[in-house]
Amino acid sequence: MKTTLGIAFHGAARTVTGSRHLLTFGGRKLLFDCGLYQGRRDEADRINRTFRFDPAELDTVVISHAHIDHIGNLPSLVARGYAGPIHMTAATAELAAVLLADTAFLMQKDLEHVNKRRGGRPERKPLFTMADVEETLTRVVKHGYHEVFEPLPGVRARYDDAGHILGSAITTFEFAANGRTRRVCMGGDLGRPARPILRDPETPAAPEVLVLESTYGDRLHSDDDATVEGLVAIVNKTVARGGRVVVPAFAVGRTQELVAMLHPLIEAKRIPDVPIFVDSPMARNATAVFVHHPECFDEETFRAFHEEDGAPFGFRRLRYIGSPDESRALNDRKDPCIIISASGMCEGGRVLHHLQHALGNAKNTVLFVGYQGEGTLGRRLRDGAETVNVYGEPCTVRAEIAALDGFSAHADQRELLEWVGSFATPPRTIFLVHGDLAPAEVLAKLLRERTGATVHIPELGQEFDLWE
Ligand SMILES: [Zn+2]
Predict the structure, then answer these.
(1) Given phi > 0 = left and psi -120 to 50 = alpha, else beta, which region is 362?
(2) Comparing C-alpha atoms, which of 188, 231, 255, 234 is closest to residue 410?
(3) Would you give the DSSP letter of residue 179?
(4) How far is the CA of 177 from the centre of ligand 1 (A)?
């Protein structure tokens, strides 16, 4: 039988969000990831409502990890007629339940807010509802790392640990074509070696075709010491001014990593013992997911679980904020504190009211610990905007704006090159996705030099035939 393989890039092409890649194996269609595109509201809404394929015609869906830019549009897919299974790792499944429900909730809140201001114009409709989320979760099929499963007849798939967030995976598809075994590796988002909590990214069997992220294709992260010293300086300076540190952060992973760094610094009295609030309705749930999946941890963290009664990385030091009233009450506090709140790119969620409250006061610091996509409020703040709109109202930025990139859960240029170099034989073809064009071009040049591979940076909607 003749097997053709095609790949089409329907998201995260020359940008970092909205991952959706369509693989076709001899006429059968497999969607890899179905993420939300995040950016300016109107543009994001249009992109997220547009599928360049018919969801009802997909045969299967395979997911790399639970970040919203990889799973966040699954409920739309289901609402628009996709009726098949959705494959993911067990930890991703548990996180997805928390995160998709949270996304539907935040969308509903945001919409109520927007619709109030639309005057006579027609009301906006939500992208999807909680009922769509519930329906989506019934389709989930869980897999362990290294387990081989068949998402399509004749196509074997296997997840290896990507070390990026809890449950994150590198996915390899293997199938026979013209008497030969072919492999395509979907790198997903690639983590970093030697980081706290998670295991290092694994190296799967060598693929001929690799789809690789390029978020930091042109950059090296600061080393750990510089990150720790930066954090010490920022916290001490802000506390000395009597201000608060507001950290826009995604509540899964980054929060735990940040606390894992703050906890020993407080113990060693290098920074004062100020309260740390994690203000996200889902943070407690997300932490519970962490506690349920010690199989994802590196050895050191796994040991800490047993030695510290299931409370590693200073979880006990955190104070979780549940209700909206408690959240607003944080604005009345006079003493210095650290507030970690989602969303990480300031595109919604409770961090917005913390920013509205904190930005106007020069005592405070807004600390970015994650990537800020183009067009997001986080990027405008990080780029030094003097005034920004929060909840549609202008807000003068007097607070200090700081950024530490050493927390990144994405491999930097050197780590990406080393990981590609760890395959037994180099890939023949590499597609770079999940990165703005400039970093992707820098990485593409280096990969061509070092591996001899043909490297493409696909445009949105571009399709390629891989084998006849
Ligand atoms: Zn990710």
Answers:
(1) alpha
(2) 188
(3) T
(4) 31
Å from CA of 98 to ligand 1 middle: 16
**Cβ(279)–Cβ(327) under 8 Å?**
yes
Residue 165 C-alpha to ligand 1 middle, in angstroms?
A: 7
Strands 429-433 and 209-213: parallel
pLDDT by position in tens, the chain (length 468): 455 789 999 999 998 889 999 999 988 999 999 999 987 778 888 999 999 999 999 999 999 999 999 999 999 999 999 999 999 999 999 999 999 998 898 888 878 877 887 777 888 889 999 999 999 999 999 999 999 999 999 999 999 999 999 999 999 999 988 788 999 999 999 999 987 778 999 999 999 999 999 999 999 988 888 889 999 999 999 999 999 999 998 766 777 778 778 888 888 899 999 999 988 777 667 777 777 887 777 877 777 665 655 555 556 677 888 888 999 999 999 999 999 998 888 888 899 999 999 999 999 999 999 888 888 899 999 999 999 999 889 999 999 999 997 888 899 999 999 999 999 999 999 999 999 999 999 999 999 999 999 999 999 999 999 876
Domains of the chain, each with CATH number or no CATH: 5-219+409-467 (3.60.15.10), 224-407 (3.40.50.10890)
Taking the centre of ligand 1 as the mean of its atom positions, its distance from the CA of residue 123, in whole angstroms, is 32
Distance 187 CA to ligand 1 centre (A): 11
Measured in Å, residue 49 CA sits from the centre of ligand 1 at: 21
- Residue 153 alpha carbon to ligand 1 centre in Å: 28
Distance 84 CA to ligand 1 centre (A): 24
In angstroms, the CA 345 to CA 360 distance is 19
Ligand 1 mean position, distance from CA 179 (Å): 36
Q: Residue 133, exposed/middle/buried by CB under 10 A (0-12, 13-18, 19+)? A: buried
Going by C-alpha positions, the residue among 451, 354, 369 that lies closest to residue 399 is 354
Phi (first) and psi of residue 65, to 5 degrees: -165, 175
| This prediction's pTM | 0.85
